[in-house]
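Raw record, unedited: histidine kinase
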Amino acid sequence: MNSLFGRMFLGAWLTAVIMVLAAVYITQFSEFGNPRHKDRWEGPEMFRELTHNLRMTRRNGSEHFRHWLEDQPPKVQARIFALDSRGRELLGRQISPSMIPLLESINYRNRESRALVDKKPTVAFFVPQRDNDSLRVVFIAGMSKEELLLRFILRNFWPILVLATLASGLACYWLARYLSKPLDNLRTATRRVAAGDLSYRVTPTLGGHSRELGELAGDFDSMTAQLQESTAEQRRLIKDVSHELRSPLARLQVALGIARQKNVQALDPELDKIGKAADYLEDIISDILSLPVSGGDDRPLDDVVEMNSLLIALTDDLKDEAQGKQVHFDLRSDDHELLVATRGSSLTAALENILRNAIKYSPCGGRVAVEIRHRQEQCEIQVTDSGNGVPEAELKAIFRPFYRTDEARSRESGGFGLGLAIAQRTVAQHQGTLEAFNANGAGLSIRLTLPLLDTSF
């Protein structure tokens, strides 16, 4: 049964059958026992005691029965009525009109009779005595249908409730597990796709479920496949265009060099502007070509770098650039040897980009704080500038390619929004994380976390 409706209907139907069978079992076997048993009759011990005293009454007279009845508790007295030969009740009680036909039906020839009195099973006895006197006794031997129903509910309500709860609970648990498991798989898939993994497919995990879920999985995989193809084509297009732009850019730079060699001083300001524009375009093309064509990069991390030494070397290399803005580095380390697996100079380039951004957005006379810490088999590097920070709503967006905040739109200060995107992808290829937040009393902080190399073996 491939339909989700069909499976839900089958589950509900089986639950109903189990509940009905449980109720029938309780009512037929537990409550009433043998079907041939007189279900509505009760009190066999009381009945035996009554008949014993009736035999004693034949020998000892009505006074014996009256004394015995007076000694009984009120609950027993309410079920036994006795009339002497003059029609008086032995305890002086009023006889119900519904008993009169039953009392009139017994005599010397018919000494026992049964009937319903007030819908209750009742037995009447005619007891002759030695002194030609007689006694008519009525015994209410059972309960009415209404009383039996009330007793059944009181005695069996909790067992039926427990069985019904267990049956429906098991069915609902199975149904919830059946429905929630594919939804969990789909939620995992959406999160992975949102994180950039467009190669993830859900058909292998949802294909074996209902037809509806299988169709949903197929549509989801078709969507991610189209997104993956579209994204790959977009990235290839950007790289192809960037490659094509390098040829005219190279010719432009050659022509610019020739023009400068002519030493025409009147054209120097214009040539400088052309040179800056060409350099800016060259930087953009270089960063675009640094972006990976696909989301994943399976090349092995076949090199090792010590992070303290790398940060010291990078801050020394950037010292002249920082002094140009009167910005100084504040480097702090906990003196642990921090070895990280890497590949070529990719990690060096990412850290250099982060440090350059910190210098760029720090004001003249500012400070760039660099902290290196050892955190449970991980290396944590935090770079904090002394600028104005980034609006909270844009802290995640700054890692998107070509994204720049409103404060960084100009070419002089803002770059073109590829540095942090490249750094984040580089860190992700090293199984690390990169996050940004505004530091208290400072500017923007970039925190980079990388797994340390296991040197225990």
